[in-house]
Amino acid sequence: MDVIEYLKKASKEVDGPIRSYIPDEKPANLIEASRQYPYAGGKRMRPAIVLAACGAVGGDKSKAMPLAVAIEYIHNFTLIHDDYMDGDEERRGMKTLHVAYDMPTAILAGDALFAKGFQLIADLDIPAENMRQILRYVTKAVWDLARGQQMDVNNEHQLVSEEVYTETIFLKTSVLFAAAAAGGALCGNADPKVVREIEQFALDMGLGFQMYDDYLGIAGDTTKTGKSVGNDLRKGKCTLMVTYTLEHLKDEKKLARFKSILGNMEASEADVREGMEIMREIGAIDYNKKAAEDKIASAKKHLECLPDSEDKQFMLALADFSINREV
């Protein structure tokens, strides 16, 4: 299956609803800021997962559409806050909200998207118990996202174990994928055992996705990712590649040089490239790739409970896409 074409198709399906739930109200600058990220597009992976999970269990996708939009709003709420905390100046080829507007407007725009997302969940046309379960999934995901983001901040300039790194990205990334997948299955009224398998698929896929995203943050093409490549090294962000390098690099001179680049916001482009080459030589980048591939292989096994369908094939293809993308 061509996952890009499927995502484009899903994006067209959700773009209209995404643009329909934020009314023209005052103050205009808050409304404009709230619309910027969700209206800008992106991969739409999370809403696509909601709809695919619903379809894969034989459900009516139209009943899952409000949840798909809600998950996308909540995802963009986290991006707005993350961009401010990370000091990023670009997102999807545009100025980040705190740069285009200001810090208070950016934070309020994120809060507004967060609230709108839960309003949409409350209006889902599904059995009440299923709605309550979706609310449990999504509220727990947002709570865990906050924990994961704080752990990510705490981990900067620290040498943490691979276990701590994995827990951090599990909370930062996997839990919202899981809420999307399990929520979609619940919109389709799936059996509880199937819901749990689909949830686990998304948890593992989220880990693989984030491991690969960390790779793109270091070695990706900025013209394709729209992100400031190398900023993670400058910030001293503890990724799997960094942890592996610090634990396995025995050349004291190179280790000292790597540490001088890591966390140095004044590091030049040449410095960052040198740091990347050190990671490449020690095998950290290959190790990161293998870890991501292993998580995706594990994720796909959890979909064996589903009958074959276009939606199941998309979910399998999306898992592969998570570690074979350029953005």
How is this structure best summarized?
With 327 residues, this protein is an all-alpha fold.
Q: Work out the number of β strands.
A: 2
Q: Output mean pLDDT.
A: 91
The structure class reads mainly alpha
Residue share in helices? over 70%
Envelope shape: globular
State the low-pLDDT regions, or none: none
Order of helices and strands: HHHHEEHHHHHHHHHHHH
Could you give the order of strands across the largest sheet? Answer: 1-2
**What kind of assembly state do the chains in view correspond to?**
single chain
Between the first and last Cα atoms, what is the distance in angstroms? 19 Å
Provide the β-strand percentage band.
under 5%
Biggest sheet details: 2 strands, antiparallel
The rounded Rg comes to: 20 Å
Counting H and I runs of at least 4 residues, what is the number of helices? 16
Write up this protein.
By secondary structure, this protein is mainly α. Helix content is 75%, strand content 1%. The protein has 16 helices and two strands. It has helices spanning 3-20, 28-39, 45-56, 61-86, 97-100, 103-122, 128-155, 162-187, 192-219, 222-225, 231-235, 240-248, 252-261, 269-282, 284-301, 310-321; strands at residues 90-91, 94-95. A two-stranded antiparallel sheet has the order 1-2. Helix 3 (45-56) packs antiparallel against helix 16, helix 4 (61-86) runs parallel beside helix 7 (128-155) and helix 7 packs antiparallel against helix 8 (162-187). The chain starts with a helix and ends in a 6-residue tail after the last helix. The model has no long low-confidence stretch (mean pLDDT 91).
